[in-house]
Amino acid sequence: MDIRFDGKRALVTGAGKGIGYGIAKALAAGGAETFALSRTQADLDRLKAENPDIHTVCVDLADWAATKKAVEKLGSIHLLVNNAAVVNVTRFLEIEEAEIKNIFEINVHAVVNVSQVVSKGMIARGKGGSIVNISSIAGRIAIGNVPVYTASKGALEMLTKAMTEELGPHQIRVNNVNPTIVMTEMAKIVWSDPAKSGPLLKRTPQGKFAEVKDVVHAVMFLLSDKSVMINGVSLYVDGGVTAV
Ligand code: NDP
């Protein structure tokens, strides 16, 4: 399946590392004028050095006003990937208010903020668009040692559906991609100990975790016109673990 994004402008949040980095590179390789947003300048400098065509935007998504301003400055965006997220390992009985606030600000509030700016532009242009939210298997199954993260992905699942309902009439599609473990820096915080990741691996029908490219391929499909009637779905890239 040949997927190209020539003539399209794309924005990827959390593109400084991991999955977002891979998505930004793939979009640029597919011909999209690509904007990579993240909060650590050194990561963006590395991305830019490797991919000079990619534009970089350094902003902290936890800052609503600064994020809104930065995204408004970009102008037309046809393809949006809300990928940035944070995680914290804790037990439910030990969750603190600051942790909930921080995780929800980035994993949920920022998705609303960035998507509002982008979809208002899409509506004004009248030509539709595609938004992919990077959720998780945690959007469907409880992951014990990350209860706030799990709750934030549950919220994202329903936010995507709510967005679908309101934006669909404008031909703006909104879908989730839900990976299992991909050994990025985030995953290492939670899963680097095989004693923790082992049971999930054992339950996975395909017997392996995902790689960045597996997630990237799903995102490219949902961003592209090949999925033009697919709207409001959660596409699990999980080797079957949530199916059994
Ligand atoms: P990483 O931690 O490797 O990368 C996340 C990126 O998001 C980093 O560049 C980070 O920047 C950026 N980011 C985080 N907070 C902010 C912020 N406040 N403002 C701007 N940028 C920010 O994560 P992954 O690549 O692993 O995860 C990407 C997505 O995939 C997330 O939505 C995650 O929930 C989801 N996912 C990941 C899985 C996995 O196993 N890796 C499994 C299931 C879902 P910085 O480092 O500077 O903070």
UniProtKB/TrEMBL annotation:
What GO biological process, any one, is recorded here? glucose metabolic process
* Name recorded for this polypeptide: L-xylulose reductase
Q: Read off the InterPro entries from this record.
A: L-xylulose/Carbonyl_redctase, NAD(P)-bd_dom_sf, SDR_fam
How this chain assembles, per its entry, is: Homotetramer.
Write the record's keywords in alphabetical order, separated by commas: NADP, Oxidoreductase
Instruction: Report the source organism.
Output: Ridgeia piscesae
Taxonomy, superkingdom: Eukaryota
In terms of Gene3D superfamilies, this protein maps to:
NAD(P)-binding Rossmann-like Domain (3.40.50.720)
Record bears the keyword Oxidoreductase = yes
Name the residues that span the membrane.
none
Q: One Pfam family this chain carries?
A: adh_short_C2
- Please name the GO terms that the record assigns under molecular function: carbonyl reductase (NADPH) activity; L-xylulose reductase (NADPH) activity
Q: What is the lineage of its organism?
A: Eukaryota, Metazoa, Spiralia, Lophotrochozoa, Annelida
Q: Has the keyword Repeat been applied to this entry?
A: no
Recorded family membership: Belongs to the short-chain dehydrogenases/reductases (SDR) family.
